[in-house]
Amino acid sequence: MTIVSAQPEAQKGNAAMYWSMAYKVSDALMLLTNGGALARLAAQPQTAPALADRLGWQADPLATVLDVLVRAGVLERQDDTYQVPAATAAVLPLIVMESQVRQWHAANQSLEKMVQQGVAADPLSQIPGASYLDNYQAAMAASARALALHLFRHGGLAKARKVVDIGGADGAVSVQLGQLMPVAAFAVVDRPPVAAHFQRRMATLAQPERFRFVADDVTRPDALLAVAADADAVIISNLLHLLGARHIRALLLALKEVLPSGCRVLVYDQFIDPAQFDAASMMVIDWVNLGSLFDLCDGDMVALLDTLGYADAAARRFPLLPGALVGATIP
User: Fold this and answer.
1) Considering only CA atoms, which of 194, 189, 187 is closest in space to residue 219?
2) 103-137 pLDDT, tens per residue?
3) DSSP symbols for 64-90
4) Over 90: is that where the pLDDT of 11 sits?
5) Which helix (H) or strand (E) holds 225?
């Protein structure tokens, strides 16, 4: 994989200067997130004085911060009234999660420990309390509808009757797919602690019997391989970046051996695009923190699937989703 220097339009000029100061905008965004200001603006457009009054903040510095975020494209302003545009509203759960993760990694000195000592840090297993896992599940569900639509349209799922969703969290993607595939059954595979979140989502459905949760560790996939043996399609979404290269290869090889001929395997993840610097590129730092060191591009994944004996491996990107979708078939 060849990586080129690809500067976003916003930071053309001195890249080092731009990125050394970009944290200031992130700090402003996290302040509004943690203080509840962003949620209030999403619920109802407000002036800076009105918002400050409700939060007990100071109006003038708040207005200055809001204007910076308007210029950054995060907020919109009409006369003296600020509002959250649709693009920002769509990722509010992700912003909440990012804020919590950022604070935890900073306090834990995750990047320094990994780069200097090789000690990885996993907030999913180390952040105390249920709120982080709640925020994580909400963040993973934020793009579920868009991802499910792309999986259905471009993944060859029209005839699938049994779908295994590996790393499916609380089942958000499977539930969205279920609306597009009304006769299909879904098995959602994830870590045992996620089961409670899955059950809460199932409680809102008219046909929860079409979905079941399978607790398993994908680094030692026992229950997963058993449930996948007669699958028509397997989805692996936003999971591989949590695994090291050895475990990625082992999981894909194990699936190749057990899945029936004709089964579709769809991998969606934050694969980087070597030709540009985007959100997926920034997430590489997260993978360094975790110790997985995930920096694959979609071409790498296609090549790996080819090497492991999958057929018809191909990649596709979508304008409103980071990362890429890689699909293949069991020969």
Assistant:
1) 189
2) 888 889 999 999 999 998 877 665 555 565 666 66
3) HHHHHHHHTTSSEEETTEEE--HHHHH
4) no
5) helix 223-228
User: Residues 236, 324: contact at Cβ < 8 Å?
Assistant: no
Residue 4 has pLDDT above 50, yes or no: no
**Distance between start and end Cα atoms, the chain:** 27
On whether residue 196 sits in a domain, the answer given is yes
CA-based nearest residue to 195, from 146, 144, 133, 123 = 133
Percent of the residues in the chain that have a pLDDT greater than 90, as a whole number = 63
What whole-number distance in Å separates Cα of residue 46 and Cα of residue 42? 9
pLDDT at residue 193 greater than cutoff 90: no
Residue 10 has which token pair? Answer: 């916003």
Instruction: Give the structural domain span for 280.
Output: 143-329
**Same domain membership, residue 242 and residue 174:** yes
Per-residue pLDDT tens digits for 232-247? 999 999 999 988 899 9
CA 128, CA 270: separation in Å to the nearest integer?
Answer: 26
For 254-280, the pLDDT digits (tens) are 999 999 999 999 999 999 988 888 888
Return the structure tokens found at 238. 């936003």
CB 119 within 8 A of CB 108: no
Residue 1 resides in a domain: no
User: Which of these three, 79, 107, 138, is where a domain ends?
Assistant: 138
97 vs 298: CA distance, rounded Å: 25
Q: Global pTM?
A: 0.83
In this predicted model, what pLDDT tens digit does every residue of 210-234 receive, in sequence order?
999 999 999 899 999 999 999 999 9
Place of tokens 């997963």: 224
Integer Cα distance of 180 and 210 in angstroms: 13
Q: What is the CATH number of the domain that holds 294?
A: 3.40.50.150
110/155 same-domain check? no
Give a yes or no: residue 5 inside a domain: no
Q: Whole-angstrom Cα distance, residue 187 to residue 11?
A: 44
Task: Assess whether 172 and 305 both reside in one domain.
Answer: yes
Q: Three-class SS of residue 213?
A: strand
